[in-house]
Amino acid sequence: MIKKSMDIIDLISWCKNTGKTLEDCRVENIYWCGHYWLFKLRCPNKGKTLLKLEPGRRIHLSVVEPGEKGIDRIAAYLRKHIRGCYIDRVDMPWWERIIRISVVCRDRKLYLYNEIIPRGFLVVTDEDNTILYASRFEKLRDREIRVGNTYVPPPHRPCLLEMSDDNLYKLLLKGKDLVRGIVKGWGLPGYIAEEILVRTGLYNKKSEKPDKISVTDIESMRRKLEELIKEALNGKGYLVYIDDSLELVTAYKPILYSKIYEANIQEMPTLDEALDPYFSQYEKEVIEKREETRIKDEINRLKKSYEKLVETITKYREKAEKLEKISNILQANYPLFEKLLQCINKTREEHGWGKIREKCPGIVSVNPREGKVVIKVQGEPVEIDIRLDAWKNILEMRRKAGELRGKARRAEIEAGKLLEKIKELENKRIRIETKVSKGIRPKYWYEKYHWLFTSEGFLVIGGRDAGQNETIVRKYLAPEDIFLHAEIHGGPATVIKTEGRTPGHKSIEEAAVIAACYSRGWSEGIGALEVFWVKGEQVSKTPPSGEYLAKGAFMVYGKKQFITVELRLALGVEEIDDPIYGVYQRIIVGPEHLVRQRSLSYVVLVPGDMRGKELAEKIMAILRRKSETTLSVSTDEVMYRLPGPSRIIRAEQGERTRENK
Q1: What is the DSSP string of 409-444?
Q2: What is the pLDDT of residue 435?
Q3: Residue among 19, 51, 21, 18 nearest 37 (CA)
Q4: Residue 513 to residue 570: CA distance in whole angstroms
Q5: Where are the alpha helices (DSSP H) in 110-186?
Q6: Rounded Cα gap, residues 60 and 189, in angstroms
Q7: Residues 384 and 455 in one domain
Q8: Among residues 550, 567, 584, which one ends one of the domains?
Q9: Per-residue pLDDT tens over the stretch 81-98
Q10: ∠222-226-232 over CA atoms, to 5°?
Q11: How far apart are CA 530 and CA 512, in angstroms?
Q12: Nearest partner of 288 among 167, 452, 428, judged by Cα
């Protein structure tokens, strides 16, 4: 990836366009995601919005939720002081890559400074710019980030657009050539420097010394920089693919890469929609590296344990062999050994322990407290117990040798287990790239509901509770849409979004599975249900005169059409090759024929007794086994899509798995 952080043009565009839309958004929560902070916002007319802030790198909206969210000290501080507050303004106070977010909190205003510069900080200040907290505290050459200090930005250039041509020229002279003059003198990245030169027709002079260009060229370069910024203010984003690899994101159409490098340029409706997939790729790389390091450290730890165990096994065996060898020698010289023991015991009785070494040959040392002496057998020191006769001493040595061999065998088993763990981790290292890359994915608005796409390509959504039923009928149900509901109290308000097309009976039958399976009928163990469907124009939230409609309730007028639906739901893993976000996986549900066509593997559920995490874990184990590939979906994702207590009646490989073979 060419670009490691957002540039000044990105930020000018982002601040002008996205920043404006964040005004009046409420801060619902803040999370720490390993290398960036995720702000969950609730915005007027937009609902839930995710904002990612990473000092030194980026700030943008995202539809990609991290697999793991946590809390660190700054997230805890922000939760305490700005959760529930509203964003008042987003701006760039200086010609520098620093975004300031003004947050109104009840009786006071706070500022969040996100420094998108090398080794930048996330700083929280009060309205007077007194530092209250920061991502880290540090004394630098030109400023000190510390609680109680006044926040001071790093030294920065004046706005390039406000500088005279003479000053711009002087800055260019800081570089050895024209490109490096723009990079070093004007503070712009190389790809912007080359873009300016392409647009001014000076690209063939990029390696010349800056003092060779004319005043007219300076004026032209300034105009092209202004042109880039003006173009960026339109709010679009551009993704640059080189050899099918996503290498750059810009806020302007990069003529340099389409003309000079013949790259594939993909225009996105907004800059956020370009930044999100670009930095999602970066997130994958960070997580892969972190996981790779963690697994590598664990492998090294296990290898050290294995090596230590091998050394121990070798010592056990050597000691056992030595004891067996000595016991055999003593047995072969039994009369001499017996005579030595008699000498030791007689000397001890007549003269005491102190005379044993003097009176008896081959004695190395004595241990009166334990009743043992050390003798030499073929140069090897051997401990014998004088309370035992010669034969029992020999048998004791052989017993100890047997114990040592037993320890060696048990240690070998443990060593084998360690090797298996090392092998598993090595395999995990191979699979980790696939798992991480397929696990980071966009999460679309409809995924907070029950949902599926019919075989004809229609989106179906159903409410998970009364509140969502209310939202679906009020916000998403259009007159030409199809509305479905099970003939039972307690079920999802289900809608087929037609978008100007007419769904066939097959799509209506597939949508009816959502209406029936996620109703109360599932938990009651009913085998089949009637589901009615009507046009959206037949559904109203307005009750008859004098009556009241509870939250999530509605009125249906006119003729209903009915479908009998068996309570039987397939749940599988779908793998999508998205042109923007790449390959990712997600859980899908629906009638078996639909899920089978689109999945790597799937199970078929009917009402039963197994529930919750136990059921989800069992399903995950089956999906992994049947898929014959690495799965990146989680147990939590499976749990989120379960209709209730269930029984698994079948597990199969999906057609997508068979296609990949």
Answers
A1: HHHHHHHHHHHHHHHHHHHHHHHHHHHHHHH--B--
A2: 57
A3: 51
A4: 10
A5: 165-172, 178-186
A6: 20
A7: no
A8: 567
A9: 999 999 999 999 999 999
A10: 145
A11: 9
A12: 428
Check pLDDT > 80 for residue 658.
no
Phi and psi at residue 110, in whole multiples of 5°? Answer: -120, 155
How high is the pLDDT of residue 382? 87
3-state DSSP call for residue 348? Answer: helix
Task: List, for residues 507-535, the tens digit of each pLDDT value.
Answer: 999 999 999 999 999 999 999 999 999 99
Q: Is residue 440 pLDDT above 80, yes or no?
A: no
* Residue of 117, 120, 46 whose CA lies nearest to 87: 46
551 lies in the same domain as 607? no
Cα distance between residue 143 and residue 163, in whole Å: 26
Beta sheet of 37-43, edge-to-edge order = 58-62, 47-54, 37-43, 26-32, 86-91, 98-105, 108-115, 122-126, 131-134
Angle in degrees, CA 438, 648, 460, rounded to 5: 55
Structure tokens belonging to residue 641: 């899509």
Identify any residues that bridge with 60 across adjacent strands, giving them in sequence order.
52
SS3 559: coil
Query: Does the pLDDT value for residue 334 go beyond 70?
Result: yes
Where are the strands (E) in 290-399, listed by range?
A: 363-367, 372-377, 380-385
275-291 average pLDDT score: 85
The CATH number assigned to the domain holding 226 equals 1.10.8
What pLDDT shows up at residue 477? 94
Query: By residue range, what is the domain housing residue 494?
Result: 441-567
Same domain assignment for residues 13 and 138:
yes
- Alpha-carbon Rg for the chain, nearest whole angstrom, is 37
N-to-C CA span, the chain? 31
Phi, psi values for residue 79, rounded to 5°? -60, -40
Name the token pair of 447.
């995924």
Percent of the chain with pLDDT over 70: 97
Of 200-209, 502-511, 584-593, minimum mean pLDDT range: 200-209
Q: Are both 517 and 601 inside the same structural domain?
A: no
Instruction: Judge if 207 and 100 occupy the same domain.
Output: no
- Nearest Cα to Cα of residue 275 among 51, 43, 93, 88: 51
Please give the tally of structural domains in the chain: 5
SS3 506: helix
- Which pair of structure tokens corresponds to residue 532? 């009615």
Phi, psi (rounded to 5 degrees) for 112: -115, 120
How confident is residue 439, by pLDDT bands cut at 50, 70 and 90? low
Task: Give the separation between CA 561 and CA 528, rounded to whole angstroms.
Answer: 17
Decide: helix, strand or coil at residue 548. Answer: coil
pLDDT at 661 over 50: no
β-strand pairing of 561-566 with 599-610: unpaired
Chain-centroid distance, C-alpha 297: 19
Q: Distance between CA atoms of 255 and 191, rounded to whole angstroms?
A: 11
Rounding to the nearest 10 degrees, give the CA dihedral for residues 56, 57, 60, 62: -120
Q: Which of 218, 249, 269 is the last residue of a domain?
A: 269
Q: How far apart are CA 359 and CA 367, in angstroms?
A: 16
DSSP 55: T
- Let me know whether 245 and 187 are in one domain: yes
Residue 58 backbone phi and psi in degrees, to 5: -165, 165
CATH at residue 137: 2.30.310.10
- Output phi, psi for 286, to 5 deg: -65, -50
Per-residue model confidence (pLDDT) at position 429 = 67
